[in-house]
Amino acid sequence: MNLHDRIYVAGHKGLVGSAILRALEAQGYNNLICRTRSELDLRDRGQVSRFFEQNAIDYVFLAAAKVGGIAANNDYPADFIRDNLLIQTNVIDAAYRANVTKLMFLGSTCIYPKLAPQPLKEEYLLSGDLEPTNKPYAIAKIAGINMCQSYNRQHGTSFISVMPTNMYGPNDNFDLQTSHVLPALLRKFHEAKELGAPTVEVWGSGTPKREFLHADDLAEACIFLMKHYEDSEIVNVGVGEDISIKELAEMIKTIVGYEGEIVFNASIPDGTPRKLVDVSKINGLGWQAQISLETGLRSVYEAFQKEYLIKQ
Ligand code: GDP
């Protein structure tokens, strides 16, 4: 990938896409192509084909997806499977037809079976039943992985698939109904502190464990893999450590400086008990995450206070 190559970042307004865009800019790539949702609806095959025909794109980071936390996935399963299948099918197929040099498909660790051994090795894909709360999303992502592999086999394309663990960072979704746990808890503890509320509700039992990767680390990993990884097999990206939701809540409580109590609402689903990824493959290739959870949380909380609250 050369500095003047035409690189399309699909989903550049989101958590992952915006981080990839920032990292590419910082590394001096000077031909970056982005389209907002209103300029290009990736669910529309005709629009996507025309966009690729007209833009002579060399590299694609496919970070556009319909994403959300446990409640959104549970409440809108049809939207999650439809939008993701449409977006990825349109982009992958148009990229092949337009002869792009290389495409990276961003997946998720929810593609792994609910009760797979931990840490999750890449080879556990399709070895057991999925977690029901995000199965439609996971099946769309598994279809995307297989589509990249199948195009490589049938058409000789160079399409690679990367599976990041749970992510956080700037430009995250802080809406309490649709967000993931980390931004939700930052917001809940912040608001409880501001209002002097005696308790903060944390969903589920607090016992599930999750691994959290800063989007800036993921972006570095994506650029690294785009340059150095050629295989059709998936690659995990993570930090190699996880913590319980209870520990996360306590860490956020301390960072925010909230002094009330944490209350667990066990009537809300826990989702998958654990999804720690095995990072030996990417570490072996020469890449490692750099941002500790504590450092990342402090910087996201600072940005949340500065940017998000002002926009409200
Ligand atoms: P998941 O990793 O796909 O399960 O998605 P989430 O990030 O939404 O949820 C992770 C875990 O955090 C689940 O066990 C949730 O029940 C729990 N959780 C606790 N409080 C919250 C909250 O306020 N919002 C969300 N989204 N999850 C929460």
TrEMBL record:
The active site is at 137 (proton donor/acceptor). The keyword Nucleotide-binding does not apply. CDD domains: GDP_FS_SDR_e. Substrate binds at residues 188, 203, 210, 270. Residues 7-238 form the NAD-dependent epimerase/dehydratase domain. It holds the Pfam family Epimerase. Keywords: Isomerase, Multifunctional enzyme, NADP, Oxidoreductase. Its EC number is 1.1.1.271. One of its GO terms (molecular function) is GDP-L-fucose synthase activity. It comes from the Bacteria. Catalyzes the two-step NADP-dependent conversion of GDP-4-dehydro-6-deoxy-D-mannose to GDP-fucose, involving an epimerase and a reductase reaction. This is GDP-L-fucose synthase. It comes from Paenibacillus darwinianus. The gene is fcl.
